[in-house]
Structures are given as structure tokens and as C-alpha cells.
Amino acid sequence: MTAEGPCLAERLDRGDFIVAPGCHDALGARILAQAGFGAIYLSGNGLSASLLGAPDIGLLTLTEMAERARAVAAAVPVPVIADADTGYGNLNNVARTVKLYEQAGVAALHLEDQSTPKKCGAMDTLSLIDADEHAEKIRAATAARTHSRFLIIGRSDARASLGLDEAIRRGQTYARAASRRASDFAGRIPEDP
């Protein structure tokens, strides 16, 4: 959260529309920031492809993602939103994920509601955990953060397999679980309850 100007949370609270193109490294992030984008998204799929030559199927570790997040956040004067997969395990792992991502300087992370092994949200045949279980992860993440400006985004990949209504229901559940924002991978942002 080393970005200049209003933090990501303040910009969202004002109702600003934020375009955060995805990248996988510090150079790409710097190019996007110089092009005028107000935020950067650290893509787990992009990072997996560039680092491992493989799709995002849960091969990258928490520490690999956190270190890349640190490099990207240090390279740009705009907020970074980072992919945190499913939180890399149970509630204890989720808390550790939040701490490492906060220390890396990112403004927000998103947690996906997939089961392990996870896949990129754009892939077919995703397996999801129960919405209440994911809500517990979001509560654990929110409790673990050290500053309220660090955003926890609950992401649902339910739309493709369970339909839009279920994706919206899950998004509302995640918002109630204390995430500031809930999003469906396909881009629909449900109303806050």
C-alpha cells in the first residue's frame, strides 16, 4: 500500500471505476502504470504461465506469489490487487497469506471459492467449496489484516457451473462475511447487502 494518492479502498468508497489490467511481473506493472492505469492486478494465471510455463492449477506457492507481489508493488505508484488463490490451505494458511501480502505492499487480495486442487477461474470443470466454508476463510482473512485499508475480496467462480443466481448469492454471503467487495469471475459485482 505504497501507492501515491488515495488508497484503493478510498477510491472504491467514492464510487470510482477502477480498471486494473493483469500482469505477471514488475516490468509489466510499470508499463501499465506509465500507460495511466490506476491499479494493477497481479495475475496468478499469468504468473504461473511466465514462471512455470504451466496454467494456474495451484502449482505456485504462497511464498512465490508473495515475493512476486512484493516486486510488483515496489515497482509502481498505484495500488496492486493480488491473486491469493484459495488462501493456500486452511484458516491458518489464509491468515498467513494475508500477513505476507500486506507485508508485500499490495492494496488488496482476492480469495477464490474453489476446492483443492484449484484451477484458473477461466477453466472448465471447476470444483467449489461450500459458500459457508469460504465465508469462514474471508472472516479469517479480515481478522488477520493489520489495517482496514487492506482489502479482502471474496471471489466466486460459481457462475459457470452453478449459474448467475448462485454466484450472486455467494457474493452476497462473502460480502456479509466482512469482505468489502465480492466479485464473480465473469465480472458481475453483486450489490452489497
Keyphrases for this structure?
single chain, 193 residues, alpha/beta, TIM Barrel, 6-stranded parallel beta sheet, 8 helices, 6 strands, globular, disordered N terminus
Based on the structure given, which CATH architecture is correct? Alpha-Beta Barrel
- In CATH, what is the class? Alpha Beta
Radius of gyration of CA atoms, rounded to a whole number: 15 Å
Can you write the helix and strand succession as a string?
Answer: HEHEHHEHEHEHHE
Could you tell me the number of beta strands? Answer: 6
Under CATH, the topology can be stated as: TIM Barrel
Helicity level, as a percent range? 40-55%
Q: Looking across the biggest beta sheet, what order are the strands in?
A: 1-2-3-4-5-6
- Stretches where pLDDT is under 50 for at least 5 consecutive residues are 1-5, 181-193
Approximate strand percentage: 5-15%
What is the name of the CATH superfamily?
A: Phosphoenolpyruvate-binding domains
Shape: globular
Query: Which structural class should the secondary elements be placed in?
Result: alpha/beta
The largest sheet is: 6 strands, parallel
The average pLDDT score comes to 86
Treating each run of at least 4 consecutive H or I residues as one helix, how many helices? 8
Count of the separate structural domains: 1
N-to-C CA distance: 27 Å
